[in-house]
Amino acid sequence: MKNSKKLLVSMLTGLVLAVSLPILVQASDLTDKCDNCHGKNGNSEDDKVPSIAGFSAVTLEDIIESYKSGDRPADKYKPKDGEETDMLEISKKLSDDNVKKVAEHYSAQKFIPHKQEFDAKLAKKGAKVHKKRCEKCHSDNGSNADDDAAILAGQWRGYLKRQMDLIVSGERNVPKKMRKKIKKLKDGDVEALIEFYASQQ
């Protein structure tokens, strides 16, 4: 009887592993593909591509859904030794379950701010603009993932500039409260904000 129970437990354990293993492999394959563009564990090595490590799972899911819906424009990108694609194409291929897996994976990684040159004088001005216009939703100088907003502090300047251009021009949809804040920015404020976030290293 004991041997029968052991055999049954063994068979059930084997069955669970057999079912689970493909799921684990698929999740790993998925994030490996994301790493091709976003860098190992989501820390980008290209200033056109954002680091997504350490973003909250909620933020990552929202970002992917905004690509799926077309609310967020997607630039074509060709990683080294890879094929050209964009986030619109990628997001449409992801199931809801895959989106959750990707979000959970990258939210568990550590965001590493990028070392990059910046204009200290302009960054100082940007700090004031951030405090007045952005700190409420992007706290701790734009570094707090718990806000369920993108991490801005330490992001690549090239990526920040591209996104700010899209937001200011209206090509990228953003929440109404953010749109109101953007409209209140004066000449030079956007450039100052970008330098401020780039300076957060």
UniProtKB/TrEMBL annotation:
Keywords noted in UniProt: Electron transport, Heme, Iron, Metal-binding, Periplasm, Signal, Transport
Main location: periplasm
Residues binding heme c 2: C134, C137, H138, M178
Family matches, as InterPro entries: Cyt_c-like_dom, Cyt_c-like_dom_sf, Cytochrome_c4-like, Cytochrome_c_Oxidase_Subunit
Endoplasmic reticulum keyword on record: no
Signal peptide range in chain numbering: 1-27
Entry's localization field: Periplasm
Entry's Gene Ontology molecular function annotations: electron transfer activity; heme binding; iron ion binding
PTM text: Binds 2 heme c groups covalently per subunit.
UniProt xrefs under Pfam families: Cytochrom_C (PF00034), Cytochrome_CBB3 (PF13442)
All residue ranges annotated as the Cytochrome c domain in the record: 1-110, 121-201
PROSITE patterns: CYTC
The protein, known as: Cytochrome c, class I
